[in-house]
Specification:
This protein is of the alpha/beta class. Helix content is 30%, strand content 20%. It contains 14 helices and 21 strands. The protein is globular. The protein starts with a strand and ends with a strand. The chain binds zinc ion (ZN). The site of zinc ion has 5 residues, from loops. Zinc ion (ZN) binds next to loops.
């Protein structure tokens, strides 16, 4: 066999979700991420499709971070024969565990409720993509945590280094050193990149010199608003709502965003920008678990946040309630005024936030504050787009609460930050992934073209020779 290095993309190819990349070096095969496709029926079908490679042939899986669209198909990979090692940071391992278990639980529940029955035409019943048992078994394949900035041997001819990506707790970009016996090549995978300068986490480490770069392009066409303006807007929303006797509902993603918002609320009360009397509820079992995992991984924090940690609990508030039990959650329903409720899901497609919306959306005194991305077709998007009524649990609810859409909290780098990450190191080629083809991805391709940098937008399962 001739020495040969090859790359192929098996998810997030000309789209945002389902991240999965395969690198082959002679007969050794390494995956970077194995995420779930998200966003509707067609995406759901894609999760059931074959991977485009044999899971049993993979020597190792390197995981950039714990978001579902990066780790959500790992239990399927294991179920279909993967027996290699899973390498990632300690924080990602801990977070991926709750994300995969939650996903498995949701899938089993959907099948129990028969929602997926008949979705493939004449097939009467449907199996979950994977079960809780599969997700638990997947944890057996996780190797010891990989520290940032250390080179580790992955398999014959392949070494890896995890670099801080500043996106969510434990997130990493991954540098691969590949040696096929004839030539050495290097590839850096951005993973998802955070916006530099956000609190708690360190900013992304710039991409190292590497022959090839594979970069996400979620916001390849956008520039973000400044973060301090957004935090001030959040404070104003809370102050005004509390003053007029309403509640604030904040739909939040459980990983990172929930902890960030808690931290801002903590700072707001500490600095006198918010009344200390506010009752803050973190009403999401997954967000509560994620917050506990946060406390266990100080190795991921920036210096400012470490300094705050030494002075006390940076999430503390005079009236903070973690409501894990359903009963405790229901008790929030009786509060008419002064409650700030953080609940999932971020796009209001499921979870406890829908109960709080049902109880507060019709009240003029209350507010709903959107701090994250709302994809088309979701309840969050319908509310943001100004629907006069929305259906929640089969009931038409009038939208009379004050709505706030605060855009500066993004967990993804904007175009300027993506280009800054790439830097000026010479590259043989830049591969663009994880973006909407018509917007972020094409905009980045044009931008790179203008800078004289060769780029390519890989198609799904397209084999690409790394020479
Ligand atoms: Zn992510």
């Amino acid at each position: 066999m001739n020495p040969r290095i090859e790359y192929s993309c098996h998810g997030a190819a000309r789209q945002v979700t389902g991240s999965c990349h395969l690198v082959t070096c002679n007969d050794r095969r390494v995956l970077i991420d194995c995420g779930m496709f998200q966003g509707g029926r067609e995406q759901d079908e894609a999760n059931y499709a074959p991977f485009g490679f044999d899971p049993a042939s993979i020597d190792a899986l390197l995981l950039t971070h714990a978001h579902l669209d990066h780790c959500g198909r790992i239990p399927k990979l294991v179920r279909e024969g993967f027996k290699g090692r899973i390498l990632t940071t300690g924080a990602t391992r801990d977070l991926a565990r709750i994300v995969m278990l939650d996903s498995a639980g949701l899938q089993e529940e959907e099948v129990r409720r028969g929602r997926r029955r008949g979705r493939r035409g004449d097939e009467p019943a449907f199996e979950p993509l994977y079960t809780l048992d599969d997700a638990l078994h997947t944890m057996d394949f996780f190797a010891d945590p990989v520290p940032y900035d250390q080179t580790v041997a992955v398999t014959d001819g392949i070494q890896a280094r995890f670099l801080d990506a500043g996106h969510i707790l434990g997130s990493a970009s991954i540098l691969l050193q590949l040696d096929d016996g004839k030539q050495q090549r290097s590839m850096v995978f951005s993973g998802d990149l955070g916006d530099p300068g956000r609190p708690i986490l360190r900013s992304p480490a710039p991409a190292p010199a590497a022959d090839y770069a594979v970069i996400e392009t979620t916001y390849g066409n956008r520039q973000h608003r400044s973060l301090p303006d957004s935090v001030d807007e959040l404070y104003r929303a809370v102050r005004e709502t509390v003053a007029r006797g309403g509640n604030v509902v904040i739909p939040t993603f459980a990983l990172e965003r929930a902890q960030e918002v808690l931290y801002y609320l903590h700072q707001g009360v500490r600095d006198g920008k918010l009344p200390p009397s506010i009752q803050v509820f973190l009403d999401s079992p997954m967000a509560i678990s994620a917050t506990e995992i946060f406390r266990r991984h100080p190795e991921c924090f920036d210096d400012a946040f470490l300094g705050e940690l030494r002075q006390g609990d940076p999430f503390a508030l005079p009236h903070l309630h973690f409501t894990r039990d359903t009963g405790e959650s229901m008790a929030i329903n009786s509060i008419e005024s002064g409650a700030v409720i953080l609940a999932g899901s971020g796009m209001c497609t499921g979870g406890r936030v829908r109960h709080h919306l049902k109880l507060n959306l019709w009240r003029e005194k209350s507010s709903v504050v959107f701090v994250g991305y709302a994809a088309e077709g979701t309840l969050a998007r319908r509310i943001v787009d100004g629907a006069p009524t929305v259906k929640i649990f089969g009931e038409e609810i009038r939208v009379r609460a004050q709505l706030w859409t605060i855009n500066g909290f993004s967990a993804h780098a904007d175009q300027t930050s993506l280009l800054a990450w790439l830097g000026t190191s010479p590259r043989r080629k830049v591969f663009l992934v994880h973006g909407e083809y018509q917007s972020g991805m094409r905009a980045m391709a044009e931008k790179l073209d203008g800078l004289g940098i060769a780029s390519h937008m890989p198609g799904m399962n397209e084999p690409i020779l790394i020479d």
